Structure formats: C-alpha cells, structure tokens
Amino acid sequence: MVKIRLTRLGAHKKPFYRIIVADSRARRDGPFVEVIGTYDPKKEPSEIKVNLERAKHWVERGAQPTDTVRKLLQRAGF
C-alpha cells in the first residue's frame, strides 16, 4: 500500500519535515516515490507548503494519508 506521510529532516531539536508518498513498508526516512510538500513546525505560525494537485492525484489512486498528514492537508486547504 502507498501512504502519504512525513519524513524528518533538520538538526537536533530543529525539526523540518517533508510530506512524501512512500510504500507503507519502507522505513520513515527511507526510500520514497515523490515529495509533495514541506512542513516547518518551528516557524510561527507553522508553515505548510503542499502541491495540492499531486496530493489529490495520489489520494485518487488509493494512497492513504497518515492522521498527521491528513490534518496538515486540511489546514492547507485540501
């Protein structure tokens, strides 16, 4: 199954996340299919950038967003 989930980047105590499309069996920071956005929780207010066309494309083809990504997509206007 394909999932839309977060992968962590950034330094110690300075997280930065990419919103990716990946196989559900792949590890968190492992191989992925496509990067569809970013999430920066350290900015005030938190910054969410998502390519909504690509997110819609993947959801239509059966990709399941995680609970966290689902909330972020809703905040981004999906």
Give an overview of the whole structure.
By secondary structure, the chain is of the alpha+beta class. The chain is 24% helix and 42% strand. It is built from 2 helices and 5 strands. Strands 4-3-2-1-5 form a 5-stranded mixed beta sheet. Strand 3 (34-40) and strand 4 form a beta hairpin.
Weakly predicted, low-confidence segments:
none
Q: How would you characterize the largest beta sheet? A: 5 strands, mixed
User: In percent, how helical is the residue content?
Assistant: 10-25%
Indicate the mean pLDDT. 95
Order of helices and strands: EEEEHEH
Task: Give the percentage of residues in beta strands.
Answer: 35-45%
Number of strands: 5
> Which structural class matches the secondary elements?
alpha+beta
The oligomeric status of these chains comes to single chain
Using the CA coordinates, give the radius of gyration.
12 Å
Shape, please? globular
The neighbouring-strand order within the major sheet is 4-3-2-1-5
Separate helix tally: 2
Q: Report, as a whole number of angstroms, the end-to-end distance.
A: 21 Å
Q: What's the layout of helices and strands?
A:
Blueprint: E1 2-11, E2 14-23, E3 34-40, E4 47-50, H1 52-60, E5 64-65, H2 67-76
Parallel strand pairs: 1-5
Antiparallel strand pairs: 1-2, 2-3, 3-4
